[in-house]
Design goal:
GO terms for molecular function: zinc ion binding. Keywords: Coiled coil, Metal-binding, Zinc, Zinc-finger. This is Nuclear factor 7, brain-like. The protein has 469 residues and is α+β, with helices and mostly antiparallel strands. The protein is 39% helix and 18% strand. It has a seven-stranded antiparallel β-sheet, with no helix packed on it. β14 and β15 form a beta hairpin.
C-alpha cells in the first residue's frame, strides 16, 4: 500500500516545486506543473519551453487540468466538504422540486429543461421535445463539432510536423551549403595563392637578371678603372725620372696614356632597375581578368526548395536529373509535389532574357517558363492555360504546351529559350543552327520563372538536363 501511495505521490508531484499539484496545467508534451510554478519558470527563463523536456509549448496560457486538480486536491486533503454533495446534485439534476417524477421536457427556443406541469402554459408556442430526444440531438451536434475540431487539430498537427521537417532540413541545408561555400572559396584561395607565387617568381627572376647585369657592368667598369689606375701610376712614375732616363722612355708612357684617354666615357646601362610598374600596374584587375577564365556564370540557377523529391540537382545548381527514389525533403509551400519539376531561383518581370538548355538524348523533358503562382501541389497541364509556356519531348516526339506536334529536322541536343517579357513572347530555337522551333504570344501580368520537368531516363546515355550560357 505504501508503495502505491509513493507512486501516486510521485505522479501528482510538480516537477518544479516537488509538491503535490496546485491548479495543475498540462503542456502539449504531456508534462504537468503547478500553474504558478510554470509561470514563474517561464518568467525566469524568458521562454516558454517545458521545464522537463525543453520542448517549446504550443499553449501560450495553458488551462487548468480539472481532472488532475481534483485528484491532487483529494490526495492532499484539500477537497472541500461540500464537493461530494455538489457532485451528487450534478448527477441527479432536478428540474422542478414539486414534480420530480414528471417526464422532463426541453424547450429548444429557450434552450433549457422545463417542468411539463408548472411551465407548460409558458411554452405552448415554443418548440418543446422530450429531454432524451434533445440530449440525443444535441450530443449528435456536439459529436459533429468534435469531429470538426479533431480534423482541424489533425491539420494543425500536419503543419507542425512539416515545420519540424523544415527545421531539420534547414540544419542540413546549413551544413551542406556551408561546406560548398568553403569549397568554392578554397578554389579561389588556391588560384590566388598560385597566382601570387607565379607573380612573385616572375619578380624574383627579373631581380636575378638585373642583378647579373649590374654585376657584369660593375666588373667591366672596375677593369677599366684598374687599367686607368695603372696608366696613371706609370705616368706619375715617368714624371719622377731623371732627364736622360725620362727622354729614353717617355714616348711609350705617353702613347699608353693617350690610348687610355681616347676611350669613351662610361655610360649607365638603361633598364637596370626592376620594372615595378609591370608587376604592380593594375595588378588586381589583371588577376581578376585571369580569374574570369576559372569561374563559370549561369544565367539560370535552379531553386532546390522547389524541386520534386525525385529530382537531384548538381552542387552548382545548374543541372538536374531524375532519381528512382524520393529524397527526404519537407513539403514546403514552394516545392513541386505532384510532378517531377523544378523552377529557377530568380524570375523575370520585364525586358529580354535568354539561356540555353543541354538536353542531349534524354527521352523525357519539358523546358520553358512558368508563372510564379503556378500550382505546385495539385493537378495541372504544361500549357499556357495553367501558366506554363514550354517545349515538350516524350517518346521521341516534340510538341508545344497546347498539344501541337513540332517538326524538327534532327534530334534536339541544345535548346535556346528566349523571353521578351514586354512584348509577351516566348520563343524556342535549336542552338546548333538557331532554327526556330516554336513560340508563344501572350500577355504576362506576373513574374515568370524558368521551368524544368524531367522524366525517367532509363536507357539514355545523358541523364542530366543542364543550363548553360
Amino acid at each position: 500500500m505504501a508503495e502505491k501511495d509513493a507512486l501516486l505521490k510521485n505522479y501528482l508531484s510538480c516537477h518544479v516545486c516537488s509538491e503535490t499539484f496546485r491548479d495543475p496545467v498540462t503542456l502539449s508534451c504531456s508534462h504537468s506543473f503547478c500553474s504558478s510554478c510554470l509561470q514563474k519558470f517561464w518568467e525566469q527563463t524568458k521562454n516558454k519551453n517545458c521545464p522537463v523536456c525543453k520542448r517549446r509549448s504550443s499553449k501560450g496560457d495553458p488551462l487548468v487540468n480539472f481532472g488532475l486538480k481534483e485528484l491532487a486536491d483529494s490526495f492532499a486533503g484539500r477537497q472541500k466538504p461540500e464537493s461530494s454533495e455538489r457532485m451528487k446534485e450534478t448527477k441527479e439534476e432536478v428540474v422542478c422540486s414539486k414534480h420530480p417524477e414528471e417526464t422532463r421536457l426541453f424547450c429548444e427556443d429557450e434552450q433549457r429543461a422545463v417542468c411539463p406541469v408548472c411551465e407548460f402554459s409558458l411554452h405552448q408556442t415554443h418548440k418543446v421535445v422530450p429531454v432524451e430526444q434533445a440530449v440525443r440531438d444535441l450530443k449528435e451536434q456536439l459529436r459533429s463539432g468534435l469531429k470538426s475540431l479533431q480534423d482541424k487539430r489533425d491539420k494543425y498537427k500536419q503543419v507542425e510536423d512539416t515545420y519540424n521537417e523544415m527545421s531539420q532540413h534547414v540544419k542540413k541545408q546549413l551544413l551542406s551549403t556551408e561546406t560548398q561555400i568553403r569549397a568554392e572559396f578554397n578554389k579561389l584561395h588556391q588560384f590566388l595563392k598560385e597566382e601570387e607565387e607565379s607573380r612573385l617568381a616572375a619578380l624574383r627572376e627579373e631581380e636575378e637578371q638585373k642583378r647579373k647585369t649590374l654585376s657584369r657592368e660593375m666588373k667591366r667598369i672596375q677593369q677599366q678603372m684598374s687599367s686607368l689606375s695603372d696608366s696613371i701610376s706609370a705616368v706619375e712614375e715617368e714624371l719622377q725620372k731623371q732627364q736622360v732616363s725620362f727622354l729614353s722612355s717617355y714616348k711609350d708612357t705617353q702613347s699608353r696614356a693617350r690610348a687610355q684617354s681616347s676611350l669613351s666615357d662610361p655610360q649607365l646601362v638603361s633598364g637596370a632597375l626592376i620594372d615595378v610598374a609591370k608587376h604592380l600596374g593594375n595588378l588586381s584587375f589583371r588577376v581578376w581578368e585571369k580569374m574570369k577564365d576559372k569561374v563559370h556564370f549561369s544565367p539560370v540557377i535552379l531553386d532546390p526548395n522547389t524541386a520534386h523529391r525525385k529530382l537531384r540537382l548538381s552542387d552548382d545548381l545548374t543541372s538536374v536529373r531524375y532519381g528512382d527514389t524520393e529524397q527526404k525533403l519537407p513539403k514546403n509551400p514552394q516545392r513541386n509535389t505532384n510532378y517531377t519539376t523544378v523552377l529557377g531561383s530568380e524570375g523575370f518581370s520585364s525586358e529580354k532574357h535568354s539561356w540555353e538548355v543541354e538536353v542531349g538524348d534524354h527521352p523525357c523533358w519539358i523546358v520553358g517558363l512558368a508563372k510564379e503562382s503556378v500550382d505546385r501541389k495539385g493537378e495541372r497541364y504544361s500549357s499556357p492555360e495553367y501558366g506554363i509556356w514550354c517545349l515538350c519531348h516524350r517518346s521521341g516526339k516534340y510538341n508545344d504546351g497546347v498539344g501541337k506536334t513540332v517538326t524538327v529536322q534532327k534530334s534536339l541536343q541544345r535548346i535556346r529559350v528566349q523571353l521578351d517579357y514586354d512584348r509577351g513572347e516566348v520563343s524556342f530555337y535549336n542552338s546548333e543552327d538557331m532554327t526556330h522551333i516554336c513560340n508563344y504570344r501572350d500577355t504576362f501580368t506576373e513574374k515568370l520563372l524558368p521551368y524544368f520537368s524531367v522524366g525517367k531516363s532509363a536507357g539514355s546515355t545523358t541523364t542530366d538536363i543542364k543550363v548553360s550560357v
